[in-house]
Amino acid sequence: MANLLVTGGAGFIGSNFVHHVVDHTDDHVTVLDALTYAGNLDSLRGLSEDRMTFVKGDITDAGLVDELFSQADAVVHYAAESHNDNSLHDPRPFLDTNIVGTYTLLEAARRHDLRFHHISTDEVYGDLELDDPERFTEQTPYNPSSPYSSTKAGSDLLVRAWVRSFGVRATISNCSNNYGPYQHVEKFIPRQITNVLRGVRPKLYGGGQNVRDWIHADDHSSAVLTILDKGEIGETYLIGADGEKNNKDVVELILELMGEPRDSYDHVTDRAGHDLRYAIDSTKLRTELDWHPSYEDFEAGLKATIQWYRDNESWWAPAKDGVEAFYASKGQ
Ligand SMILES: NC(=O)c1ccc[n+]([C@@H]2O[C@H](COP(=O)([O-])OP(=O)(O)OC[C@H]3O[C@@H](n4cnc5c(N)ncnc54)[C@H](O)[C@@H]3O)[C@@H](O)[C@H]2O)c1
Fold first, then answer.
1. Are 315 and 40 a contacting pair, CB within 8 Å?
2. Mean pLDDT by 10-residue block, N- to C-terminus, for the chain (332 residues)?
3. How many domains does the chain have?
4. Is 203 left (phi over 0), alpha (psi -120 to 50) or beta?
5. Where is the NAD(P)-binding domain (predicted)?
6. Edge-first strand listing for the sheet containing 52-56
7. Is CB count within 10 Å lower at the N or C end of the chain?
8. Is 33 inside any structural domain?
């Protein structure tokens, strides 16, 4: 049995990963999470102490990080400021957590010679034209658009440098947009689902033509475990499940699955610099490491996600009013 240290394990994708590890391995998980507005201890409820230990703390706290690294066998780094809209409003926390935080962890990985996996996003590659025949691959040049994606790109480059300069045993994965349980209501899919549950019309940025490549968070987790197990040190792997959909189609599908007319939503002011299209080519992960997603039917995954938000109002309700007040102040 190994002790996995998971940063950001009380956030959306991190908590899905912790549940996945507990369900599919014998490993123990130690979660390090600062419980920012995006972290929620309730996302880890039901996990017993002998499988999961929670430590509240900041990844920029070098002393605490050092102590936790001394007890771990491997580290998976999810902690980040992750919301594009927030990064346009106040970029500073993105620099602190995504850049300085990752630097702090890399220095500890170097001191303790620990296996390190860095979680990143396809947003580091910028965006594609709607009719571009190419998708992102591991060779696509970095071209981030927002303070969020540029700080994630910076953190990826730090990892690459610490591998090359100091021999840190790290891998990187860049994943497409995730959906599933435990996602904060500020994000696109949960925001629309919880609006409908509250009897409020969903909000669509601009014309809704922006394309995202959706993957279920549980498939992201299985891909990360695969990379941790079989990935080659120093390599980057793109994670995606061929789930391209434009935002308009997603909103209309949510409405249909929730028994509402497909056109009962409002258009709101678009996000500044809104990336047009992301699309992942995950051939390397599939062919070299033999990983395959299990949620290949987006509609079925979305239906299950809607049901989760129906069943877990006590999880999302406390954040809902504050999020909508923030969007309203931006005309969105
Ligand atoms: N959401 C997506 O669709 C997506 C897609 C690809 C990659 N990613 C990446 O996956 C990771 C997790 O994303 P998410 O959507 O789960 O984010 P999230 O915002 O839901 O969760 C982030 C977690 O990190 C914690 N955290 C933030 N700053 C911290 C700090 N300084 N110290 C310790 N903990 C801190 C928060 O409390 C929270 O629990 C991020 O690195 C993100 O870039 C996300």
1. yes
2. 95 98 97 97 95 98 98 98 92 98 98 98 95 95 96 98 98 98 96 97 92 97 98 98 96 98 91 89 98 95 98 97 90 83
3. 1
4. beta
5. 5-303
6. 52-56, 28-33, 3-7, 74-77, 115-121, 170-175, 236-239
7. N
8. yes
The pLDDT score that the predictor gives to residue 161 is 98
Q: What residue ranges in 139-258 does DSSP mark as E strands?
A: 170-175, 178-179, 203-205, 211-213, 215-216, 236-239, 244-246
Task: Specify if 285 maps to a domain.
Answer: no
54 forms beta bridges with 31
Instruction: Determine the structural domain holding residue 72 and report its residue range.
Output: 3-178+214-239
Q: Per the domain annotation, does 71 fall within a domain?
A: yes
Q: Which position among 33, 58, 81, 122 bears the catalytic label?
A: 122
Query: Would residue 278 show up in a list of annotated catalytic residues for this protein?
Result: no
Other Cβ atoms less than 10 A from the Cβ of 104: the count is 19
Whole-angstrom CA distances from 75 to 8, 142, 152 are: 11, 25, 18
Phi, psi (deg, nearest 5) at residue 313: -60, -35
What does the longest C-alpha to C-alpha distance in the chain come to? 57
What is the chain's length? 332
Q: How far apart are CA 28 and CA 40, in angstroms?
A: 20
Residue type, 280: I
Indicate the DSSP class of residue 141: P
At 189, the amino acid letter reads: I
Q: What is the spatial distance between Cα 162 and Cα 61, in angstroms, rounded to a whole number?
A: 19
Ligand 1 nearest-atom number relative to CA 58? 32
Helix (H) or strand (E) holding 197: helix 188-197
**Cα–Cα distance measured from residue 328 to residue 45, given in angstroms and rounded to the nearest whole number:** 32
Burial of residue 182 (number of CB atoms within 10 Å: 0-12, 13-18, 19+): buried
Q: What is the pLDDT of residue 195?
A: 97
Torsion-angle region of residue 242: left (phi > 0), alpha (psi -120 to 50) or beta?
Answer: left
CA of 78 to the centre of ligand 1 (A): 5
Distance from the CA of 79 to the center of ligand 1, in angstroms? Answer: 4
Q: Is residue 315 included in any domain, yes or no?
A: no
